[in-house]
Amino acid sequence: MVPLSFPSTIGFDVSGVIVEKGAEVTKFELGDAVYTRVPQQQMGTVAEYVAVESRVVSKKPDNISFEEAAGLPLVGLTSIQALESVGIKEGDRVLIHAGSGGVGTFAIQYAKAKGAFVYTTTSTTNVDMVKALGADRVIDYKTEDYKTIAKDLDIVFDTLGGNYTLEAFEIIKEGGKVTTIAGFPDEESAKHLGLTNYKLPEELSSLIKERSAVYKHTWMQPNGEQLDKLSSMVKDTKIKPVIDKVFSFEDSIEAYLYLSTGSAKGKVIISLS
Length: 273
Prior knowledge:
By secondary structure, the chain is α/β, with parallel strands linked by helices. The protein has helices at residues 66-70, 73-84, 102-113, 127-132, 146-149, 163-171, 187-192, 202-210, 224-235, 252-259; strands spanning 13-17, 33-37, 57-59, 93-96, 117-122, 137-140, 153-158, 172-180, 214-217, 243-248, 267-271.
């Protein structure tokens, strides 16, 4: 989905200190501790220096480390944009798939901060961890069928795609909402991705119509203002970063190999310090 020319730099999240700035940058000063998720075309944050537009940058919360801050932008912006696209509100019953992953660990906390009742799925070994993040009902997918437990939902946050996208319509209430980051694009996302004459698959269209449902696909966009709001939530301890492991720059390849196992609990960080 993203064309690459090799050799290619890698990484989108970053936290560090401003060492240079453009003459028209007024929001930040040299020496400010900041964090961001860089735009797609600026990929390459596993590096000593990163150049990025100021509009997507935010000051790092004082109560977390650079490593913790580096684990927030992608998962934070993805969760905020996906859940806000369907108007999450106090009292909503929400299922968040893969609660122990990077997006899941943030989305649980964000949904709870919004006053939602949160179901989440995870494996047996991670049940206690996601409970500690605030999930109201943790579903162990190795021993339980989530479709028999999470029913009549206001929102399903689909982070897995495939059949999970279609199954979401079995457990939402009439007029419920499905928000996805891994399923089929909606028309707005398709336009952003440059897909011409795109139509939703017939099976998905039928499910949306049958349930009078809302279906949204989020292709996350860097956003400095949303990171500012996220910083406030972190300062108020409504959100805390979840870090699995921190690798040194010299062990970057090991970090990505570990990430590829799919067993990370929260975020994997590469530190250059």
